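User: I'm putting together a small comparison set for a docking exercise, and I want a reference complex before I start. The sequence is below, and the ligand is S-adenosylmethionine. Could you produce the 3D structure with the ligand included, as structure tokens?
Assistant: Of course. I'll restate your input first, then give the structure tokens for the complex.
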Amino acid sequence: MALIAYDDADAAAFAQTRHLRDDGLAGWRAAVGRHVRPAPGKRLLDLGCGTGSWTRAFRSWWPALDVLAVEPAAAMRERAVIAPVLPGAADDIPAAHASLDAVWLSTVVHHIPDLEAAAREIRRVLKPGAPVLIRSAFAGRHEAIHLFRWFPEAVAVLDGYPSVAGVEAAFATAGFGTAACEPVAQVSARSVAEAAATLRRAAHTPLQLISDEAYAAGVARLTEAARTGSGPVVDTLDLLVLR
Ligand SMILES: C[S@@+](CC[C@H](N)C(=O)[O-])C[C@H]1O[C@@H](n2cnc3c(N)ncnc32)[C@H](O)[C@@H]1O
């Protein structure tokens, strides 16, 4: 069971506001490319692909890469910008044993109820030595993400997410070791005003899990920041690579 429902309302908000622009993703393109080394015939799984924006980006950056998209929530699959999206989950992946060259999990690990079971299943589908790439806001790592400045009450929600060490420990039980853990910057919005105008509570798990009062206070902070702020909103999330 994910932390939030990913029902029609969540999926619509996510599809509408959480697809990052390609020109803000140069850091992710470089980092993923370095670890995956895309080449003809290589197969990457976008696990928990949501509405498919990362699959779409990978296919446009590396047309020779075979990208498989899997997502458990029907409402997210129905709004996906790519096709096909197969039903499945981290502990039940519709792929053959040792058939994949990489697995990508973007802002998914906090929704997985049993990380050790997921690690075993990912181990099953990956070729020996192939990487799992985990893009996430991990517990204790809110400092470089603007959302948590505007909504400081949401830090407590983030601190309930898995930590880097917790994910490493869970995946170690399936034989994975850490290959890299690196911060990666992205342009989340062209301006604070754009961030304010496009914010949807239903699109962000941490904002769904704070009180209405805390959410309203955060919206007021963001509205004020939009009045005075200039320049793009650049956030840094982590990329944890395990092999
Ligand atoms: C914040 S969204 C991220 C979507 C997409 N990866 C992205 O970055 O745009 C989290 C996604 O994880 C999916 N999810 C929840 N539980 C999951 C599980 N056990 N295995 C795989 N995906 C899961 C949700 O349905 C949702 O689509």
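Residues 2, 6, 18, 47-50, 53-54, 71-73, 76, 89-90, 106-108, 111-112 surround S-adenosylmethionine (CB under 6 Å). The CA atoms of residues 26 and 210 lie 32 Å apart.
User: Thanks, that's exactly what I needed.
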